[in-house]
Amino acid sequence: MSVPPPCIRETAHGVDLILRVRPRASRNRIGPPEGDALAVWVTAPPVDAAANEAVLHLLAEALGRRRGDLALMKGATARRKVVRVAGLTGEQVLARLQPASPELDPAMGRAK
After folding, report:
1. 8-101, what's its fold?
2. Rounded (10°) CA dihedral 81, 59, 32, 42
3. Pairing of strands 8-11, 14-22
4. How confident is the model at residue 2 (pLDDT cuts 50, 70, 90)?
5. What is the pLDDT of residues 13-35, one digit of tens each?
6. Where exactly are the structural domains of the chain?
7. End-to-end distance of the chain based on CA atoms, in angstroms?
8. Which member of 11, 39, 57, 95 lies 3.0 to 4.6 Å from 31 by CB, making a disulfide possible if both were Cys?
9. Residues 45, 71 contacting (CB under 8 angstroms)
C-alpha cells in the first residue's frame, strides 16, 4: 500500500491537494512536491481567476476526472491553494498524478 506524501490528504469529503501554483509559466505542468505542497505551473496569468481555472483543468485532466469533481477550497488569491478532489482515495490520486509528475514515487509516497 502506498503512503501519499503530505501534499495529498484524505478527508471525509474527498482528497485535498495542497498546491504551490506558479502562474505565467512557459507551459502547464505538475511538478514534484516542495515541502508539503505539490508544485503546479500554469501558463495563465493570475488575473480574473484564469490561473485557478487552469490549475483545476490541468488537475482534472491528470486525474481523469471531470472538472466538476474538483473544487478550490482555499487560496483563491494566493499561490498556495487547497483543491478538493471528489470520488478518489489518496492512493488513487497518487497513482494518477505519478505519470504527470514522475518525481512522485508511488512506492514510497515521497518525492524522489
Report:
1. Conserved Hypothetical Protein Mth637; Chain: A; (3.30.1200)
2. -70
3. antiparallel
4. low
5. 999 999 999 999 999 999 988 88
6. 8-101
7. 18
8. 39
9. no
